[in-house]
């Protein structure tokens, strides 16, 4: 069963990472329009800034959990497609400078 991991940028500048088995654009519409009290409902409008699709739901769940544990800097590098920067962002706090 196919599933998509996505990141939304909220109006307050924060990020929301989620998982859906429906079309990501349909899920985005729900985040912006459904009358549910939630993290994104209080930070509308939100926009889709990243998504990855997986064939297996278990892989998507693992990826969502992984991304949720990342720092803001690391999420932003992923959003920009700077995959080569991800390992370094995981191993060094930003206040330490270059190695």
Automatic annotation (TrEMBL):
PROSITE patterns: GIY_YIG
GIY-YIG domain mapped to chain residues: 1-77
UniProt cross-references to InterPro entries, sorted A to Z: GIY-YIG_endonuc, GIY-YIG_endonuc_sf, UPF0213_domain
Pfam family, one: GIY-YIG
Family of the protein in this entry: Belongs to the UPF0213 family.
Full protein name: GIY-YIG nuclease family protein
Lineage: Bacteria, Pseudomonadati, Pseudomonadota, Alphaproteobacteria, Hyphomicrobiales
């Amino acid at each position: 069963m196919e599933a998509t991991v996505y990141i939304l940028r909220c109006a307050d500048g924060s990020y929301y990472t989620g998982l859906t088995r429906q079309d990501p654009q349909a899920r985005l519409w729900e985040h912006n329009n459904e009358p549910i009290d939630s993290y994104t409902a209080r930070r509308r409008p939100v926009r889709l800034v990243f998504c990855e699709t997986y064939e297996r739901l278990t892989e998507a769940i693992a990826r969502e959990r992984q991304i949720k544990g990342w720092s803001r800097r690391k999420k932003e590098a992923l959003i920009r497609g700077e995959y080569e920067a991800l390992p370094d962002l995981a191993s060094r706090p930003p206040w330490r400078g270059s190695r």
